[in-house]
Amino acid sequence: MTATIERPAEKPVKAPPLRPQHRQLAVLAVLVLLAIPLPLVLPPALGAVAVRILIFLLMAVGWNIMSGFGGMFSFGHAAYFGLGAYTSAYLLTEHGVSPWIGMVAGMGVAAAVAVVIGYFSFRYRLQGAYFALATFAFAEALRLIATSSDFVNRAVGFQVPLIQGESLWQLQFAADSPAYFWVALVLAGLAVAVSIVFLHSRAGKYVTAIRDDELAAASLGTPVMRHKLLTVALSAAITAVAGAYYTQYYLFVNPDLAFGASVSIQAIVPVVIGGIGTVWGPVVGSVIMGSLSDVTATLLRTPPEFLSFLQGRSGLDVVLYAILLIFIVRLLPKGIVGTLKERWRR
Amino acid sequence: MTTLSPDRKRLDAGTLKRGGALAAVVAAAIALALLQSGSALVVWQSVVTGILTGGLYGLIAMGLTLIFGVLDIVNFAHGALLAVAMFLAFGVVQATGLHPYLALVVTVPVLFLIGAAVHRGLLSGSGGGSLENQLLITLGLSLLLENGLLLFFGAEPRSIGLPGEIQIPLFGAVVAGSRLYAFAGALLLGALLYWLLRRTRLGTAIRAVAANGPGAELVGINVRRLHTLTFAIGTACAGAAAVLAAPLISITPTLGAQFNITAFVVVVLGGMGNVVGALVGGLLIGLVEQLTTIFLNGQSSLLGVFVVFVLVLFLRPQGLFGRRA
């Protein structure tokens, strides 16, 4: 576990005008302000891409907190995404509860499950490959349970009931409404803000210290277990928001969409491309991944002459992610943001 | 941690005790299954099918466990490489009309070369270093291979029929001949790997590198070349497993994913890096799967597998027959 990415500045600092977290929050505020008018200028098809990017971003931020800041490489974030999606969908379809409350409930359920899984994994000292495999197994087990439980309609899953008109409380708008983008923007902006505040908080400093050298941190009296579990819970809760919003935006969810291994991969890849353990890595990675998936979708719908055999085939988008993933890991092991940062410092 | 293949001396009291306990648990599970289903024939059929399918799992897991034991790489692309080998076998049988098992002559060397190329090109050297990076690279590779197959061959399943396929009666149970051959193939491959690791110079070198890389380097072993060779041998095992398994399943680009999960469970169960453990673990997982379908009617048979997986991860992460590091 030597994924040291964010080192504290080594240069002697002369009374900085802004603390790093305030600078990062200011940058975030500017980015959000710049993004607000996007759905009004973009054509509707690209508006949908923008919403997808924001959902990617929520998952990426969630994964980055646990695996980047905390150094606990999760391969099963689909578990938390799915718990968020299923909790809110269940409460909405069976009990008519507002998706907002469902989202909060989903965050709670995901955080609770994450704490239980985390507790046992840390107690039995699962590390590295074993930890990754264990998280993977839990997500797969949840997928199988969802597929075979009548309680959650087996493989069919849930369909979000449509309401008349638009309602922020019910989180439903007209199909091309910019409101979907704005709500997602607020959620994603909040998630990034939380990750910034967390990273610079006392707990965040403990967590990065544990990541860098658990034994040293423990011997200095850091409550290791408590801070690891806190990180895992925060990470799961943010990922659950992505799941709840996903269901509400696409209006349905089933076991594969919620708990499939591809969901975990979608949480990991943007962060790896952007830079694991950095604040802006998930943002950069999500924008690249989301745009790329749109480019490939267009390419498959209307391929140029020499690629005409691709018409109507599936798989190209993932092939491109995979190539990008391998290249980034091989050539820029710290991701785009991590590498730029290193260059900057030199 | 790495016990590439157990030495005879290691068959000590602890192993015997655990083996006995395991046998008792299996016997109890079978007895309970008898009570649950009330039909000896159903249970017997499940046990036979479970053991034979388990041989197949062991076969697939052997290459994976070899790679893990020597290189410490969790090869997420193993299942996808298996799928590549199956499509290769399918292509060979389609093009030449040879007996399906003769496709071994093509798949084993080709997969060996692919394995060597993957290790040289993607995994060794800088950037392939940390555990996370290797995991991500093999993950990327599996996505690339699976979706590459999907792109070129489409999603419709294919099958390789065994000419002259027979049904063999076994004390009331009935098994397909191809299933029995795959089981025999698993035993043969396990024996071959055991012999390779235990009785040849190459095997000694591989075990030396697994036990102590820098030390092996000091006595003149080219560790990087040996790593490449081991990765290639592990991948070639997937090539052999693919041909033996092909008549039993429908061949789709994404078939690797389901086998990957099972293979990882088998590897952890048998002790990562333990080739014989992989075979035993495979048999157990095959049994667990079949018994799950008796106990939990209508549930996925993989659910029992995951329960076993999580229990083993938590209680004996070094595997049933491994030693604590």
Compose a concise summary of this entry.
Chain A is mainly alpha-helical and 346 residues long.
Query: Between the first and last Cα atoms of chain A, what is the distance in angstroms?
Result: 24 Å
Oligomer: heterodimer
Beta-strand residue percentage of chain B:
under 5%
Count helical runs of chain A. 15
The SS-based structural class of chain B is mainly alpha
The number of distinct β-strands of chain A equals 2
Low-confidence stretches of chain B: none
Give average pLDDT of chain B, whole number: 85
Radius of gyration of chain B equals 20 Å
Give the percentage of residues in beta strands of chain A. Answer: under 5%
Question: Which structural class do you get from the secondary structure elements of chain A?
Answer: mainly alpha
User: Termini distance of chain B?
Assistant: 5 Å
| Overall form of chain B | globular
Shape of chain A: globular
Largest sheet of chain A: 2 strands, antiparallel
Q: Give me the side-by-side strand order of the main sheet of chain B.
A: 1-2
Point out poorly predicted stretches of chain A: none
The ordered string of helix (H) and strand (E) elements of chain A is HHHHHHEHHHHEHHHHH
Largest interface here, residues on each chain? A-B, 45 and 46 residues
According to DSSP, the number of beta strands of chain B is 2
